[in-house]
């Protein structure tokens, strides 16, 4: 959990985010969730371009860390697991954030974001530097704010035909009507409620620990080796917000890399290097690596580095890298009774492997990719000496949701037939878009705005010389290429 102040924004910052949010809505990257019913706060849907962008991130990650390595295998585990998993992992007891409420405006906040500090790991002390309510501006003191209460972040659900909420309210009504329930009846209700109460996973990691033995036995991997997973995670965040930065439903890409204890520093450095390479390839020019000090790390971690990024709303966590020791395998061994030790094939020695865990948030990767790619500039128009503003998403080419746009110069049938033929041929190799509406200048701008690296213009000469004009998004230079060489040319350029 980070302890940064997410409620403060500068006007410039919100402006930067507003542009991204509005572009995402306008062009079909990301829509507000459930919009036709008035929305659902902080829920977002990925539109036609957003899903391509997000898939590119996930596929590149999977290719790089699972397919191109012999020491990592993939997994896809259930979203709802046996509750004992979360008891063993420590999430039921410790996955909590401190919640405080402003008594004046009734806004709720994470206390650590407002300057509350925890003393002796037990009680929360009110801030002493004159901090104010980010919503209504009253001073934060015991008169205006409630003392922080620890709030478990796991999202609950109930499996099976018993609905505990109805059961409890039914019983309440029964008592209001003057009836008494016995202690046994109450315990019976409690028992039923706990039987059906389950949690959506708050991280993908535990699935990889719980299936460790299955993976080991079926793949016969030797240390060091890793298990990778991409999937949804759910957290009942107190203060979701900042677009897709903090939501209650999000996606993670995680690796649990199993090692001998003595090797942990070597592999911690290895994964830090891999995370740096990933950031560069995503187009991130600058980030911060924050060493998390003793006392602020998660309960399982002996060393953590947070990769932070200067978002328009402040410096915040983008990814994390943690040395989880043998905490998880040890706890799952003890609590499940299964022997999760690894046997050294040479010496026969049995031991619990230690774990390095690099974690990437998918949605935060999407947000960073959009922020890094967004640019506004003046570009020349077709008119001599004229220029106009152009918005360009300068995605690295592998990331662009659409790789090639096919644009016939006119809607005339002979030209559009030719262009459609070219489109069909290109679509076998690339994600393409076909667009024949409005002026060619406007169509170029539309493609720039969604980050399409290449536009292929089919003109009347194409009918004669079997060649097309290719326009480069970044240089805006145009080149004439034979249609027969088009796929090969673009493959080379998009490498
Ligand atoms: P934060 O301090 O921002 O709450 P965290 O330290 O709790 O994050 P981790 O538990 O390390 O996050 O989760 C791993 C990654 O999952 C984060 O680095 C981030 O990219 C992503 N992530 C975590 N919580 C959310 C969320 N609520 N919405 C979107 N992405 C999230």
List the defining traits of the structure above.
4 domains, 495 residues, 5-stranded mixed beta sheet, 15 helices, binds adenosine-5'-triphosphate, 7-stranded mixed beta sheet, single chain, alpha+beta, BirA Bifunctional Protein, domain 2, disordered N terminus, 26% strand, Herpes Virus-1
Biggest beta-sheet profile: 7 strands, mixed
At CATH's second level, what is the architecture of the largest domain?
Answer: 2-Layer Sandwich
The DSSP helix count reads 15
The total domain count is 4
CATH class of the largest domain: Alpha Beta
Percent helix range: 25-40%
CATH topology value of the largest domain = BirA Bifunctional Protein, domain 2
Low-confidence region ranges: 1-11
Side by side, the strands of the main sheet go 3-11-12-18-15-14-13
Spatial separation of the terminal alpha carbons? 38 Å
What is the 3D form?
A: globular
- Averaged pLDDT, please? 92
> CATH homologous superfamily of the largest domain, by name?
Bira Bifunctional Protein, Domain 2
- Our estimate of the beta-strand percent is 25-35%
What's the number of extended β-strand segments?
25
In short:
The protein is α+β, with helices and mostly antiparallel strands.
Folded structure, characterized:
With 495 residues, the chain is an alpha+beta fold. It has 4 domains: 11-83 and 202-370, BirA Bifunctional Protein, domain 2; 96-152, Herpes Virus-1 (2-Layer Sandwich), CATH 3.30.40; 156-199, no CATH class; 402-493, 3-Layer(aba) Sandwich (Rossmann fold). Helix content is 34%, strand content 26%. The protein contains 15 helices and 25 strands. It has helices at 11-27, 48-67, 83-89, 91-94, 164-176, 183-196, 205-210, 212-219, 264-282, 327-336, 362-373, 413-427, 440-450, 460-465, 486-493, and strands spanning 30-32, 44-46, 72-75, 96-101, 108-110, 117-119, 123-125, 149-152, 156-158, 197-199, 225-234, 249-259, 288-291, 303-311, 314-325, 342-343, 350-351, 354-361, 374-380, 387-393, 404-408, 432-434, 454-458, 467-472, 478-482. The strands form 8 sheets. It has a 7-stranded mixed beta sheet with strand order 3-11-12-18-15-14-13, sandwiched between helices. The chain has a 5-stranded mixed beta sheet with strand order 22-21-23-24-25, with helices on both faces. It is globular. The two termini are 38 Å apart. The model is unreliable at 1-11 (pLDDT under 50). Bound molecules: adenosine-5'-triphosphate.
């Amino acid at each position: 959990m980070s302890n940064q102040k997410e409620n403060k924004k500068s006007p410039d910052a919100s402006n930067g985010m507003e542009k991204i949010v509005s572009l995402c809505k306008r062009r079909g990257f990301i829509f507000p969730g459930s919009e036709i019913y008035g929305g659902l706060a902080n829920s977002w849907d990925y539109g036609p371009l957003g899903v391509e962008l997000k898939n590119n991130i996930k596929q590149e990650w999977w290719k790089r860390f699972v397919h191109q390595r012999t020491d990592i295998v993939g997994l896809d585990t259930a979203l709802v697991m046996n509750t004992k998993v979360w008891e063993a992992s420590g999430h039921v007891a410790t996955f909590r954030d401190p919640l405080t409420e402003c008594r004046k405006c009734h806004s709720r906040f994470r206390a650590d974001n407002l300057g509350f500090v925890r003393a002796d790991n037990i009680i929360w002390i009110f801030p002493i530097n004159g901090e104010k309510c980010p919503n209504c501006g009253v001073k934060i003191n015991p008169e205006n704010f409630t003392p922080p209460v620890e709030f478990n972040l796991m999202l609950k659900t109930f499996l099976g035909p018993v609905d505990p909420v109805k059961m409890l309210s039914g019983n309440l009504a029964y008592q209001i009507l003057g009836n008494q329930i016995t202690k046994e009846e109450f315990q019976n209700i409690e028992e039923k409620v706990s039987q059906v109460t389950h949690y959506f996973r708050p991280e993908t990691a535990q699935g990889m620990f719980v299936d460790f033995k299955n993976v080991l036995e079926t793949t016969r991997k030797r240390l060091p080796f890793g298990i990778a997973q991409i999937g949804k995670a759910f957290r009942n965040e107190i203060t979701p917000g900042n677009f897709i930065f903090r939501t209650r439903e999000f996606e993670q890409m995680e690796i649990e890399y199993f090692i001998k204890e003595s090797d942990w520093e070597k592999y911690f450095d290895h994964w830090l290097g891999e995370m740096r390479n990933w950031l560069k390839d995503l187009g991130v020019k600058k980030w911060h690596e924050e060493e998390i000090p003793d006392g602020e790390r998660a309960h399982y971690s002996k060393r953590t580095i947070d990769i932070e990024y200067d978002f328009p709303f402040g410096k915040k966590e983008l990814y994390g890298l943690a040395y989880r020791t043998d905490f998880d395998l040890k706890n799952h061994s003890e609590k499940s009774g299964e022997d999760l030790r690894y046997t050294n094939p040479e010496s026969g020695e049995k031991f619990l492997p230690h774990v390095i865990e690099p974690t990437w948030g998918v949605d935060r990767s999407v947000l960073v990719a959009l922020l890094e790619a967004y640019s506004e500039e003046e570009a020349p128009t077709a008119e001599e000496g004229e220029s106009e503003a152009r918005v360009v998403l300068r995605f690295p080419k592998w990331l662009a949701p659409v790789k090639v746009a096919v644009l016939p110069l006119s809607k005339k049938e002979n030209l559009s037939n030719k262009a459609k033929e070219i489109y069909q041929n290109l679509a076998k190799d690339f994600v393409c878009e076909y667009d024949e509406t409005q002026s060619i200048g406007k169509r170029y701008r539309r493609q720039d705005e969604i980050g399409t690296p290449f536009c292929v213009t089919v003109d009347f000469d194409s009918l004669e010389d079997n060649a097309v004009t290719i326009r480069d998004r970044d240089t805006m230079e145009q080149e004439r290429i034979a249609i027969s060489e088009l796929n090969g040319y673009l493959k080379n350029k998009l490498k």
